[in-house]
Amino acid sequence: MSNIVSPSILSADFANLERDIKRVENAGAQWLHIDVMDGHFVPNITIGVPVVASIRKVTDLCLDVHLMIENPEKYIEPFVNAGADILTFHYEAVNDVSAIIKLIKSFNIKAGMSIKPKTSVDVVYPYMNDLDLVLVMTVEPGFGGQKFMNECAKKIPYIKDNSQKDLIIQVDGGINAETAGICTAFGANSLVAGNYIYKSDDITSAVKSLL
């Protein structure tokens, strides 16, 4: 099976967002990664529900929405209504992980959980069989264009070897053709890339190099 490529619109041109979405869609990307940041959980502010709703109108791609926000439970239903297909919350941002997973899945969409670089991979274990996706951050969340942290990729085999189901193991941060190879060798099957795709001279080639 080929990898799921989920280009991050954080690196797209927001004045020409529909054009940039179509470019990755035509290049063969299966998902679109949408980073939602609140300026509290991470030191940056990006987009919210209205932009996701607008994106939903112009693409049939799977909307892979990454909630880098505090109190994600307040925003799950609005993002579902806006058209999210997957909602990924941060382990570090919630008090009751099981309740958040249950809430997301109650809307019949996929539930993902992300862990930051300094968070031990062990925290994923109790929830593996309830989640659809685990996102391993290989940079500190908040800004695009950071350098890939090799040691974070070493969390991937633990997740792969301990999961009892066909879990999507996603990696986000500093992904390019070389670092993607490291991650897929460890067992990742979904790759998020922003600058590598959108700042490339040839977007189609960049996407295909990750498939």
Description:
- Helices cover 32% and strands 20% of the residues.
- It is α/β, with parallel strands linked by helices and 211 residues long.
- Strand 4 (86-90), helix 4 (97-105) and strand 5 form a beta-alpha-beta unit.
- The N and C termini lie close together (9 Å).
- 42% of the residues are buried.
Question: What is the compact description of this entry?
Answer:
The protein has 211 residues and is of the alpha/beta class. It is built from 9 helices and 8 strands.
- The unreliable regions are none
What can be said about the biggest beta sheet? 8 strands, parallel
Mean pLDDT: 95
Biggest β-sheet: strands ordered side by side in the sheet: 1-8-7-6-5-4-3-2
Describe the secondary structure blueprint for this structure.
Blueprint: E1 4-7, H1 17-27, E2 31-37, H2 49-58, E3 62-68, H3 76-82, E4 86-90, H4 97-105, E5 110-115, E6 133-137, H5 150-153, H6 156-162, E7 168-172, H7 177-186, E8 190-193, H8 195-198, H9 203-208
Parallel strand pairs: 1-8, 2-3, 3-4, 4-5, 5-6, 6-7, 7-8
Helix pairs in contact: 2-3
Task: Supply the key terms.
211 residues; alpha/beta; 8 strands; 9 helices; 32% helix; globular; 8-stranded parallel beta sheet
